[in-house]
Structures are given as C-alpha cells and as structure tokens.
Amino acid sequence: MQINQYCVYIITNNSNNVYYTGVTSDLKNRVLEHKGKIKTGFTAKYQCGKLVYFETFQWVDDAIAREKQIKAGSRKKKTDLIIGQNPDWNDLSYGWYD
C-alpha cells in the first residue's frame, strides 16, 4: 500500500518580499516548475522560485485545509511560519536538482 504525501509550501522571490502558498503531491517537481516558470501566472510574474517553507500531510483534505488557513492569515503570520522553520530564509530546495 502506497502512503500518500501532500505538501503545503511557501515560495518567495530573491528579495523575500512576495509570498506564494500552494499545495502539491509532488513538491520537488512543483518547485522545479516554479523555478523554470513552466506556467505563466503569479509566481512567474513575481520571480518566485525560492522554497522557504513546507509542511507534509498524509491526507489531501488536511493539506488543502492548511493551505487555506495559511492563505487566510496575515503576512506577519506567514513570515512567522517561515522564520520558525527557516530563520535564514534559505532555499530549502537547494541541491535537489544537481
């Protein structure tokens, strides 16, 4: 039996001044799509490709609920989430694509 894993993530630009929150079942591939600007839209327009935060869930409904909770929160709450896991604002996907 396969265990599913769903991720809620936040990516930003190099200046850390634009946040995008999303949910995916394939974080590595989804971040690569953002980095490569595969799809036009918000993240391509604002140069978002730096993964600064993520959480994993077994159930998609839980991941979607968490994504909605994060999106509904203030910018300060998002910043606090990021700093709590990644105080140096490192790209958490660094080295994934070597």
Structure description:
InterPro entries: GIY-YIG_endonuc, GIY-YIG_endonuc_sf, UPF0213_domain. Residues 4-80 form the GIY-YIG domain. Pfam families: GIY-YIG (PF01541). With 98 residues, the chain is α+β, with helices and mostly antiparallel strands. The protein has a single domain (6-85), classed as GIY-YIG endonuclease (3-Layer(aba) Sandwich), CATH 3.40.1440.10. It is 38% helix and 21% strand. The chain has a three-stranded antiparallel sheet, with helices on both faces. Strand 1 (6-12) and strand 2 form a beta hairpin. The longest helix is centred in the last third of the chain and has 13 residues, at 60-72.
Protein topology:
Blueprint: E1 6-12, E2 19-24, H1 27-35, H2 42-45, E3 50-57, H3 60-72, H4 75-85
Antiparallel strand pairs: 1-2, 1-3
Short characterization:
With 98 residues, this protein is of the alpha+beta class. The chain has helices spanning 27-35, 42-45, 60-72, 75-85; strands at 6-12, 19-24, 50-57. Helices cover 38% and strands 21% of the residues.
Instruction: Find the CATH topology.
Output: GIY-YIG endonuclease
Low-confidence stretches: none
How many helical stretches? 4
Q: Per DSSP, what share of the residues sits in E-state strands of 2 or more residues?
A: 15-25%
Number of strands: 3
CA-atom Rg in angstroms: 13 Å
Class based on secondary structure composition and strand pairing: alpha+beta
For the biggest β-sheet, the strand order reads 2-1-3
The dominant shape is: globular
Mean of the pLDDT scores?
94
The termini sit apart by 30 Å
CATH superfamily assignment? Answer: GIY-YIG endonuclease
Series of H and E elements = EEHHEHH
Oligomer class: single chain
Family: Belongs to the UPF0213 family.
InterPro entries: GIY-YIG_endonuc (IPR000305), GIY-YIG_endonuc_sf (IPR035901), UPF0213_domain (IPR050190)
Organism: Mucilaginibacter glaciei
Pfam families: GIY-YIG
